[in-house]
Amino acid sequence: MGVKNNRLVFLSFVLLLIWAVSSLILLEQMPLDPPQVAAGQKKIKVLIRTGTESGALRQISTIFEKETGIKVEFTELGRDVYFTSVGTQLLAGTEAFDIVSVPNTSIAQFASARAILPLDPFMQDTNLTDLDALDLDDFLAVYRYQGITYALPTDISTHFLYYRSDLIPQPPETWDELYKTALRFTKSINSDSPTVWGLTMPAVAPEERTKIFASLLWSHGGDVLTEKEGNVQFDSIASIQAGEYLEKLIRQKIVPQDLLNWDFSRTREGLLMGEAAMAAPYWNAAYPMIKNSNSPFKDAIRIAMVPGIKDASGRITRVPFQHGWTLAINASSNHPLEAWEFIKFATGKRGGAVYARNGGVPARRSILGDVSFRETRPDFSLILETMGIAKNEPSVSYYPAMVDIEEKALAKIVTMYESAKDSFSEAAQELRQLTGRMNRNSR
């Protein structure tokens, strides 16, 4: 028993040391001597990830500062270090920022650790919030943990089917139809094909592989686990069938053989260069980028709902993936009231409209359905339709560990190291051990 305790103490020390070193690295990237603020002027700091979202939020902040007098200071981090840095800082109790941008899948982890503040007290205080103006029902998703709201979304992402309409007049409705269509446009199978691959999709870790596979998994009727009960479903017949579909694409070389190296940008490039006839599942965010490109194929590239599974009655079941990037208040913030004012404005209808005009996809029905965006953002109508049937990943406090197990299983399939049945069976066993430990620790 003493040896076990000593190991636990040593492990805890190592983890704390890693957090401390990571904290120093992050703090070196943050401005230690920020610009001087006028006497009496309030200021909040926002930690965000570099990208379209950060640029759009900066536009929102300009209007917010003029109307409230609250200065907004941003710290941007690259995609490669963002998740590690955010987790390290929040769990260490940093005061370096007041608001943090996090994906909805991180909320359970940070809320369970009390690293972010619940938003319900701010929303329920009539002196702080006009609930009618906030209009929670207008949000496509509001993210909660154990029934308590911890974050509001600024941006929504989901999956589309992208296809070359000059080659494929009608988009495939089912995964079987997509497979047959992809066969025709794979050069190694059909020498007359004008494209190298019939299909492609992102498959890198950590952000792509499991999320992209989710649309396949769920539409086949499979799942990783049930959120409330934590029952593992990854080795169910339906889940294995989804894995076998991916395995078939790999074995027949319908998708690129180096698929594990294909990320968001490489997938977009494959469409724009005419290398691939289709991309699915693939992120909605690529559509405006494609239409604003100089590719000779841009006008032929169109979008449709992700395919589904047809039952005996002819009904097609589609379950696209969706997730949101949200704003949450750091539990160690020294300016929580001002932070709430910014979140309320940035995720509100006015802020959302600014966000949309600057390339973002606001998580509000009223904006996605606004006729004024039909010409400039034709993808909004499909996003709105897709979100009506889309699904989230499980919101569990052990999400990173769950995803790590799933990613390894998928990597075995893509590299043809193991069959879908074997890799999913092994992963399911690991997942049951993980959920068992978490259930014991929560007692």
From TrEMBL:
Signal peptide: none annotated. This is ABC transporter substrate-binding protein. InterPro entries: Bact_solute-bd_prot1, SBP. It comes from the Bacteria. Pfam families: SBP_bac_1. Gene3D superfamilies: Periplasmic binding protein-like II. Coiled coil: none annotated.
